[in-house]
């Protein structure tokens, strides 16, 4: 069942981006180094490898990877997030390439640069899941196109098992037929404008199928939490799950 595509992403609203930034800084930023340690080991990265950070936000992974010598491109739809990413990179004395781009336009934008990256990462619900499953599949095919043969893709997204167990994750009502959550800003939200997004929450086997349909191989699905990236077994209690996959050689 294809979901209606959300029109404007809530992330283009500056107030929403600002509020989310505070949340990411308090809950996710402290775990960043551990997450990048895992990436380096899991994907066998070597300094100077080209890495693309999809939905890079304020650049916490892009900046940490650049500090370690990688050639990093960070893309995001939010001007506010990118502005913050540039500021933080400047303070850290590194210069990843940041660009404003909607993930829906990935293939079009990087046309002619197929196979350019050794690794692609997309952490913390960065645009994946809100495109309808066909849109999510198109996104994954786009990512595959960017990767060199053997290149790795690591993505984190919500763990549908938790939803189907009836555990509300506080962000909106869950429709278990379509597997979607309808998220919206609460009444009286100080940003004024009502923002809505319909997010597809996958169960692990669906996510694995989507990746294989896109052409990825060696798909592994694991449990994860902020600052706890290890490739451990996924538990139905995990809020997020991680996928590690490879472009076939
Ligand atoms: C929760 S933040 C996570 C940011 C970063 N990956 C991190 O882990 O700190 C989600 C990010 O995805 C970006 N995003 C959402 N939809 C997007 C889209 N369609 N294209 C590009 N970026 C998108 C948002 O602007 C936001 O910066």
Question: How would you explain this protein's 3D organization?
Answer:
It is globular, with a radius of gyration of 17 Å. The chain has eight helices and eleven strands. The strands form two sheets. The chain has an eight-stranded mixed β-sheet with strand order 3-2-1-4-5-11-9-10. It has a three-stranded antiparallel β-sheet with strand order 6-7-8, with no helix packed on it. Helix 6 (132-146) links the parallel strand 4 (117-122) and strand 5 (147-158). Helix 2 (32-43) crosses helix 3 and helix 6 packs across helix 8 (204-214). With 249 residues, the chain is α/β, with parallel strands linked by helices. It has a single domain, classed as Vaccinia Virus protein VP39 (Rossmann fold), CATH 3.40.50.150. The site of S-adenosylmethionine (SAM) has 21 residues, from helix 1.
CATH architectural type: 3-Layer(aba) Sandwich
Quaternary structure type: single chain
What fraction of the residues are assigned to beta strands by DSSP?
25-35%
Ligands, deduplicated: S-adenosylmethionine
Please mark out the parts with pLDDT under 50 across 5 or more consecutive residues, or reply none.
Answer: 1-6
The level-1 CATH class: Alpha Beta
Arrangement of strands in the largest sheet: 3-2-1-4-5-11-9-10
Q: Please, what is the average pLDDT?
A: 92
- Helix and strand composition category: alpha/beta
Q: Helix fraction? A: 25-40%
Number of domains: 1
Tell me the CATH topology: Rossmann fold
User: Order of helices and strands, N to C?
Assistant: HHEHEHEHEHEHEEEHEEE
Largest sheet descriptor: 8 strands, mixed
Looking at CATH, the homologous superfamily is: Vaccinia Virus protein VP39
For the record, give the distance between the C-alpha atoms at the N and C termini, rounded to a whole number: 32 Å
């Amino acid at each position: 069942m294809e979901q209606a595509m959300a029109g404007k992403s809530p992330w283009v609203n500056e107030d929403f981006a600002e509020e989310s930034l505070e949340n990411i800084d308090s809950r996710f930023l402290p775990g960043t180094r551990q997450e990048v340690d895992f990436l380096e080991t899991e994907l066998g990265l070597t300094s100077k490898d080209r890495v693309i950070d999809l939905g890079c936000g304020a650049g916490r992974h892009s900046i940490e990877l650049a500090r370690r010598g990688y050639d990093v491109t960070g893309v995001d739809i939010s001007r506010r997030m990118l502005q913050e990413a540039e500021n933080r990179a400047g303070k850290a004395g590194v210069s990843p390439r940041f660009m404003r781009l909607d993930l829906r336009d990935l293939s079009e934008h990087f046309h002619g640069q197929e196979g350019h990256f050794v690794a692609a990462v997309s952490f913390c619900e960065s645009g994946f899941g809100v495109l309808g499953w066909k849109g999510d599949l198109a996104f994954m095919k786009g990512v595959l196109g960017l990767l060199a043969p053997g290149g790795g893709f690591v993505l984190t997204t919500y763990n549908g098992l938790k939803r189907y167990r009836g555990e509300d994750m506080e962000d909106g009502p869950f429709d278990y037929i379509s597997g979607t959550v309808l998220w919206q800003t609460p009444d009286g939200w100080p940003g004024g404008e009502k923002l809505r997004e319909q997010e597809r929450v996958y169960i692990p086997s669906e996510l694995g199928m989507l990746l294989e349909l896109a052409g990825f191989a060696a798909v592994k699905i694991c449990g994860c939490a902020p600052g706890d990236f290890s490739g451990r077994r996924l538990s139905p209690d995990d809020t997020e799950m991680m996928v590690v996959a490879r472009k076939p050689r």
